Amino acid sequence: MSRRPQTDLAVLGALSVEPMTGYALRAAITSTLGHFWSESFGQIYPALARLEEAGLVGRDEERRFTLTDPGRVRLRELLAEPIERSPARNGLLLRLFFGRTLGREQCIELLQDAVREAGESLATLAAIRAEVEAENSPDRDYFLLTIAAGEAGARAQAQWASSSIASLRQSPDQPHPRD
Q1: Cα(30)–Cα(100) distance, rounded to whole angstroms?
Q2: Radius of gyration of the chain (CA)
């Protein structure tokens, strides 16, 4: 699936939850899906125009975008397509891979930041979990699945970063050959 159908999937999916303006859609994607997906205004607005022209979204009396019946069909089609895996882009791992050049102490600092960020993510996700659990939404169980994935990832990140710090502190420093 190329970038365009994935943007369409995010937009149609978000509109399946509730009608929204373009601005509210971007905010919803950022605040809700943003824990595992991102879209920019530059992707959302052209997608909305294209989807509206294709009859997959419409507008209600308040000028909010709404999902049409053909839009629901298209959303189901997109959801049923195989997931396109794209290579991860992880700046932390890129730096650690070249850690001998960066230096042990800087690598440890990066890993400590990763532990702190994982803790912040867990706190944020706990607050979101509490909100979702308090709602009586038909999407509740599915939203909780994605929250659980985020929690598991944050816990794994914290555990990995902590053990990596311990490993770096125990192993002898290897100078770079150019030093």
Answers
A1: 36
A2: 21
- Note the pLDDT tens digit of each residue in 121-130: 999 999 999 9
Structure tokens at 171: 């192993």
Cα 60 from Cα 102, distance rounded (Å): 55
69-80 vs 3-17: helix crossing angle, rounded to 10: 130
- Cβ density class 85-111: b for 16+ within 10 Å, e for less: eeeeeeeeeeebeebeeeeeeebbebb
Distances (CA, A) of 173 to 44, 99, 149, 170: 48, 11, 35, 9
CATH domain 3-80 topology: Arc Repressor Mutant, subunit A (1.10.10)
Write out pLDDT tens, residues 95-144.
999 999 999 999 999 999 999 999 999 999 999 999 999 999 999 999 99
Angle formed by the axes of helices 104-134 and 140-170, nearest 10°: 160
Distance CA 136, CA 128 (A): 14
For residue 39, which of 67, 63, 15, 55 has the smallest C-alpha distance?
A: 15
For the chain, give every domain's residue range. Answer: 3-80, 91-170
User: Could you identify the residue written with the tokens 């919803």?
Assistant: 28
